[in-house]
Amino acid sequence: MQSAPLNVDNGEKDEVSISDDNKAKLAKQEKKHRNKIKAAAAVTALLGGGAGLVACSGAGAWRYYLAGGICAAISHSLATPVDVIKTRKQVNESLKDMSMFKSGLKIMKDDGGPRALLAGLGPTTFGYLFEGAIKFGIYEVSKPLVGSMLAWSAALCKMSWINSKILGFVISGGIAGVAASIMLCPMEALRIRLVAEPEIGANGWIDGGLTMVGNEGVKGFYKSLLAMLSKQVPYTITKNVSFDFITTIAYTAIATRGITICSKWKLAIPLLSAMLASVMSCISSQPGDMLLSVVNAHRGKKSTVEFFNEIMKKEGIIGFFVGIQERFLHVGMIVTLQLLIYDYVKRLVGIAATGL
């Protein structure tokens, strides 16, 4: 007689349990939906800003943006395995003293084979497609504008040294580096997190990005902006300006000797100039790259300045050059290929080769 009420109670408990499960599932779905809306809004804002920038840059300027986007996306995507090893060495203590080859083997062994070396390929390709377009486009468009402003300032202040071509190029590179950092920061934050914590990308990099939005909000993608600026600004200035000037010097030297600038010279000179630019840009941006890796690899609200102080306290200046050997290979591959493609695509769309 008394067992019936017990069955009713159990049934009620089951119903309550099922109801709670449904509520939890609905709450999870709603949260994921909100994350998608936030991510879509942020991406739309960035793309809208980029499109507006191209439209305001003047007739024909789109060619610089196109060439920059193509060269950056291809070069960074092809170098993804090297970037994965470099990043893991920077954030994983057990890999710091290993060679690049041994580090790569350990990563593949621990994380499921060769595919582990392609972690972050999605955000790398898309991130650098837009970053490259903004970086090269703004740099090229800014050069004549900045040059005119410096000439006006020199005349106004009666200081002829202000009217310097190299100063104008450096300023243009700095402006481009800042804009590129803002565009790239979200995708680079996601890429580094996917490399440092592969489980986040178990269901794909887009799902990994939504997980980051849910855990840290859109602001979480910009917590490393200071670190990104410390990497991208010197990197952009060194790479773009040195490539401009080295190619110009080389072409001028050949022309003064009465040598015809044929297609072979248009390959050899950009190739040599790009290789030299890659070495200089690697060294100038290495401390910023180290900061960027450690900031994005760790969750929480720890600031870039705090990470900087921690590295200085533990290892000193040398701590900012962990992974420099891998990065010489990585940046060497990227910059050399990137500048060659950029120069070639520019010529395809009717712009003169860099330095001519």
In short:
This protein is mostly helical and 356 residues long. Helices cover 78% and strands 0% of the residues.
Outline the structure in words.
This protein is mainly alpha-helical and 356 residues long. 78% of the residues lie in helices and 0% in strands. It contains eleven helices and no strands. The longest helix has 53 residues, at 3-55. The protein is globular and about 80 Å long. The relative contact order is 0.12.
Could you give a short account of the major beta sheet? none
Mean pLDDT: 88
Number of strands: 0
Shape: globular
Terminal CA distance: 100 Å
Which residues sit in consecutive blocks of at least 5 with pLDDT less than 50? none
Order of helices and strands: HHHHHHHHHHH
Radius of gyration: 25 Å
Helix count equals 11
Strand content: under 5%
What is the share of helical residues? over 70%
What is the SS-derived class?
A: mainly alpha
